[in-house]
Design brief:
With 675 residues, the chain is of the alpha+beta class. The strands form seven sheets. A five-stranded mixed beta sheet has the order 2-12-11-3-10. The chain has a five-stranded antiparallel beta sheet with strand order 7-5-4-8-9. Strands 22-21-23-24 form a four-stranded parallel beta sheet, with helices on both faces. One of its GO terms (biological process) is DNA replication.
Length: 675
């Protein structure tokens, strides 16, 4: 027989349901009701009061990414960075009574509460701030997350006055606050992460943001979220709202009130200045706090001042100075970017900085290491600017006693070289091109994805983009970029997640394009420093194919330095010899064939374009090249024709007249190209 609760008053029924729910979800309590009794009581309440707000808390499950339109916009805050900037803001006000509160660094949430007929209040919806107008529904996470400082239901104490004038059942209001995770909890969770061989959580703000979006309710409880309220939607003064919330049992941000009377009208500026100076040492604070919020308390003044499209005019955030830390370099690591730049990273003992446990800091480039003579043992000062990434500030104690000497001497003239001579990824020699240190070796795995993308773009293959290049390289199927042409449709389908039909089409296109690659495009695909489109065309015009080119390089052909310049020509020639000889052999082994050059003779024209044309300049470049002529962006004495489009300036036309270059219109060019 089903339990009979008809004799209970509705208020008593709800109280027992609340007690049972709290016992069920608490780790240290046991529910006194069986599931059958609980369900029967819920059924009884739904018959008596089908709109009772307690019923809206039942049956919630986490919903990933569900967007919610906020009832009221949640604005950002205007920001100042120093007490002096705050004083300027304060002097624009009429010396009002203000609330100065801590600006905790977490996740802003909007909690909607609803009155029932007995006067009790229930949480009916929780959502994140989002973009200020649309947030994400996190009601289930809040209801079941055991969040300290957040009430799921309460009876407003009379001693603090009513929230609304004569509140009725169904009336609603909102409580706004911040969900945060303490530094101690972050430390404890990171110990577990490291013990499991997982990556550390970076900081409390990101961890709180990730936690409130979890689907695993038990994991949310384990991460110990806490709530601190800072405002409400009710039309009363701010200090009364905070007093009410604190007396009711909510967690409330730390705050003080000041500035009401004329003799104390300057107190807010003095208080802000004092707190700002104290904030430079926040390492002992339990929660991350990146500033103060100074808000005018009077609801009437708030209404009069109003809002901009971005922030309220009656409040401002005073940001604390960036956290800094002094650390000793324990290790210097070098990483290779996708572009071949070798980037230094200093490693030090973990420090808590700006809400995160940090143990490494990336420097700008190798010149940073050389200029500041950073080695193991160097003591440096870091900051976490804007609470984002650690940033090098200065050297506190130099571990090298030598006087400053030129880069090339200090690099290898010390007991420990300041930077590596060989790539940490492929082991090949590096090139110092200050401010950078570069690896140009074509087989370097760290930059293989970028090289593959560039190679395909240079030979005008459009079927594979950046993301697919990353997937192919990460799969381990490409020891060299040329290995792409060894994959069949089945392998491409498996690696890239394509249908077998699409993969077969890509493989066919790859086979087709390798049958006739213009030599100039192949030269660009080699990715040699300082070998641009103009130099590639000159080299391709000089030599018919790579074999001829490499043989002439070995024989010491003086054309390179005479035509391309003594420095540029020498470097291009040496780099082609060092990096591209073996690459061409690999390309030949997978079937690459260089297209036979189009005979130019006296008909090969150098053409320059200016002004607005019917099709894009890049498209015209391809058409001009394909027709055996030469496209150039620069107007020199060698240019035979200047094609002038609409809205062209007079500069190039005047220059063409001076050089004796023929000036023609786009119709002439289209006739030349057979368009």
């Amino acid at each position: 027989m089903a339990p009979d609760f008809s004799s209970l008053l509705s208020a008593d029924l709800v109280e027992q349901l609340i007690e049972a729910r709290e016992g069920y979800y608490s780790h240290d309590s046991i529910s006194r009701l069986s599931d059958t009794q609980y369900d029967a009581m819920v059924e009884e309440l739904s018959v008596r009061e089908p709109q009772h707000p307690f019923l809206s808390q039942i049956g919630h499950h986490p919903i990933s990414g569900k967007k919610v339109q906020l009832d009221h916009p949640l604005y950002s805050l205007d920001k100042v960075k120093t007490p002096q900037e705050f004083e300027v803001w304060w002097n624009r006000q009429d010396k009002p009574f203000v609330v100065i509160s801590s600006k905790y660094d977490g996740v802003a949430v909007d909690l909607k509460y609803r009155y029932c007929t007995t006067g009790r209040v229930f949480l009916v919806q929780a959502c994140t701030r989002g973009d200020g107008t649309v947030g994400e529904d996190v009601t289930a996470q809040v209801l079941h997350g055991n969040i300290k400082g957040l009430l799921l239901s309460f009876t407003p104490p009379l001693m603090h006055g009513p929230l609304l004038d004569s509140p009725q059942g169904g009336d609603e209001f909102h409580v706004y606050g911040e969900l945060v995770i303490s530094r101690q909890t972050l430390h404890e969770l990171n110990l577990v992460q490291v013990g499991r061989g997982h990556k550390r959580f970076s900081n409390t703000r990101n961890l709180a943001n990730a936690t409130i979006g979890l689907q695993d309710l038990e994991e949310i409880k384990r991460r110990k979220l806490q709530f601190f309220a800072y405002n409400m939607s009710t039309p009363i003064d701010l200090h009364r709202k905070l007093y009410f919330l604190s007396g009711t049992g909510f967690g409330v941000v730390d705050y003080v009130t000041c500035g009401r009377a004329a003799p104390t009208s300057n107190i807010p500026t003095a208080y802000v200045s004092l707190q700002w100076s104290w904030s430079k040492d926040r390492s002992s604070e339990p929660f991350d706090c990146d500033g103060m919020v100074v808000a005018i308390s009077s609801f009437g003044i708030q209404q009069r001042l109003g809002y901009t499209s971005h922030h309220p005019r009656w409040a401002v955030a005073v940001k604390y100075p960036d956290d800094t830390a002094v650390v000793t370099v324990k290790k210097l690591e070098w990483t290779v970017s996708k572009t071949g730049t070798i980037t230094p990273q200093i490693v030090y003992d973990p420090v808590f900085l700006g809400g995160a446990e940090l143990e490494r800091c990336t420097l700008h480039n190798v010149a940073h290491v050389i200029d500041y003579r950073i080695v193991v043992g160097t003591v440096v000062e870091l900051c976490r600017s804007g609470g984002v990434i650690p940033k090098f500030l200065r050297v506190v104690s130099d571990a090298i006693s030598t006087e400053a000497v030129p880069h090339e001497d200090i690099a290898f003239g010390l007991p420990t070289p300041l930077y590596p001579s060989h790539c940490p990824s492929c082991g090949q020699p590096l090139k110092l091109e200050l401010p950078d240190l570069k690896c140009y070796h074509p087989t370097c795995q760290a930059q293989l994805a970028m090289r593959l993308e560039h190679f395909l773009d240079a030979i005008d293959f459009k079927g594979i983009g950046e993301k697919t290049c990353d997937i192919l390289v990460q799969s381990g199927a490409l020891p060299f970029l040329e290995s792409l042409w060894t994959l069949d449709a089945s392998a491409m389908s498996t690696i890239c997640g394509w249908s077998i039909g699409h993969a077969a089409t890509i493989v066919e296109d790859l086979e087709r394009i390798k049958q006739s690659v213009p030599f100039a495009k192949l030269l660009l695909a080699f990715q040699i420093p300082r070998l641009g489109r103009s130099a590639a065309k000159k080299i391709a015009s000089r030599y018919d194919n790579p074999e001829v080119m490499f043989s002439k390089i070995h024989s010491g052909d003086a054309w390179w330095t005479s035509e391309l310049g003594p420095n540029v020509g020498f470097e291009i020639r040496q780099d082609l010899l060092q990096y591209s000889t073996s690459q061409w052999q690999r390309l030949k082994s997978v079937g690459f064939i260089v297209a036979r050059p189009t005979p130019k003779g006296k008909d090969g024209l150098i053409i320059c374009l200016t002004g607005t044309l019917m099709i894009g300049r890049e498209d015209y470049r391809k058409l001009i090249d394909a027709s055996g002529h030469i496209f150039t962006n620069s107007l020199t004495r060698d240019v035979k024709y200047l094609v002038v489009g609409a809205d062209a300036g007079s500069g190039k036309s005047a220059k063409a007249a001076k050089y004796g270059t023929a000036i023609v219109d786009e119709t002439w060019l289209r006739n030349l190209l057979g368009l």
